[in-house]
Amino acid sequence: MTENGHLPVLPTEVIEFLDVGREGIFIDCTLGLAGHALAVLERNPRVRLIGLDRDGQSLEIARDRLEPYAGRVTLYQADFKDLAKLDLPFAKVRGILVDLGISSFQLDSPERGFSYMHEGPLDMRIDQRTKTTAEKILHTYPEQKLAEMFAKYGELAQTRRLAREIVHLRKLGRLETTGDLRVLIEQIYRWRPQRGRIHPAAKAFQALRIEVNGELEGLGEFIDGTVRLAAKGTRFVIISFHSLEDRIVKRAFHALARPDEGAPILEVLTKKPVMASEAEVAANSRARSAKLRAAERV
Ligand SMILES: C[S@@+](CC[C@H](N)C(=O)[O-])C[C@H]1O[C@@H](n2cnc3c(N)ncnc32)[C@H](O)[C@@H]1O
Questions:
Q1: Residue with CA at minimum distance from ligand 1 atom 5
Q2: Which residues line ligand 1 (CB under 6 A)?
Q3: Class of the 11-101+216-297 domain?
Q4: Which residue spans of the chain are classified as CATH 3.40.50.150?
Q5: Residue to mutate, 126, 212, 248, ligand 1, most ligand atoms under 8 Å from C-beta
Q6: Given a cut of 50, is residue 2 above it in pLDDT?
Q7: Segment 196-248, tens digit of pLDDT
Q8: Of 103, 172, 220, 245, which sits most exposed with the smallest number of CB within 10 A?
Q9: Which residue's C-alpha comes closest to atom 15 of ligand 1?
Q10: What is the three-state SS of the chain?
Q11: Cα–Cα distance between 111 and 104 in angstroms, integer?
């Protein structure tokens, strides 16, 4: 573990697929605590790194960790979906990394409200400057919309009942913390810990987080737009942790590699998504559901 409890996933594969031996700029769209970024900078002294994160708190920790390389690093607090607006020198960019979702650091910070395992506010905003919190969604969405959200992003059963109970609790003013939501979910799904079973609250919290942060919105368009901006030879490495996310990445890559009209502008380097080894999963449980897809601008 690193000092902040975050190990980058698939580190060897990321370095390989980015082809970090080349001179130029690498963009880390989801810097987190700079695990991958540090590996890139350590690997090649002729590399410059541009790092983005929506989360100001993570960005400040990353800035400290990257201090030894400060002369080669530029950081932005930004949503990677706004990458095109940053006016970056794409002709010099050699690789672009996107490691989706949130980090263990965020998950393990109780005050951020991301985890059902910690008592905290129902917040879940990645960028704390934005207005929509998990509490706002739970307290304002109509029952039907809540049920659909939990079914689609959490792949949970009985979501109509879950939504009904949420509406009931919120009327009583008894849905204020992560603990309130966890207890409700444990009652509905009659939760008893069992080896190999995922806690239903993990799925429900994931669904809420995806909704709060609009995580899947515009992801396909971001990939399409960025590949078009990129120079020939630019490598794309995208790691997802959710089947819906992975499907968006797969389809976006495929559409550019096999367009209905015109010549392909992307070559997919991973026929199937690359997954972590058993040894990596044993050392870093977050790696269990990671799927890496890589491609090259042609
Ligand atoms: C899985 S972590 C990345 C960990 C990082 N690769 C490392 O090795 O430390 C994902 C990071 O992406 C950030 N993030 C999520 N969605 C984002 C977005 N749309 N734009 C920019 N950053 C985002 C999160 O705040 C989080 O810090």
A1: 32
A2: 6, 8, 30, 32-36, 52-55, 58, 79-81, 99, 101-103, 126
A3: alpha beta
A4: 11-101+216-297
A5: 126
A6: no
A7: 888 999 999 999 999 999 999 999 999 999 999 999 999 999 999 999 999 99
A8: 172
A9: 101
A10: CCCCCCCCCCHHHHHHHHCCCCCEEEEECCCCCCHHHHHHHHHCCCEEEEEEECCHHHHHHHHHHCHHHHHHEEEEECCHHHHHHHCCCHHHEEEEEEECCCCHHHHCCHHHCCCCCCCCECCCCCCCCCCCCHHHHHHHCCHHHHHHHHHHHHCCCCHHHHHHHHHHHHHHCCCCEHHHHHHHHHHHCCCCCCCCCCCHHHHHHHHHHHHHCCCCCCHHHHHHHHHHHCCCCCEEEEEECCHHHHHHHHHHHHHHHCCCCCCCCEEECCCCCECCCHHHHHHCHHHHHCEEEEEEEC
A11: 14
CA 28 to ligand 1: nearest atom: 6
What is the location of CATH 1.10.150.170 in the chain? 118-212
Find out if CATH 1.10.150.170 is the number for domain 118-212: yes
| Span 82-130, pLDDT tens digits | 999 999 999 999 999 999 999 999 999 999 999 999 999 999 999 999 9
Average of per-residue pLDDT values in the chain: 96
The pLDDT tens digits for 59-77 are: 999 999 999 999 999 999 9
Q: How confident is the model at residue 38 (pLDDT cuts 50, 70, 90)?
A: very high
Best mutation site among 103, 106, 222, 237 for ligand 1 pocket (most ligand atoms within 8 Å of CB): 103
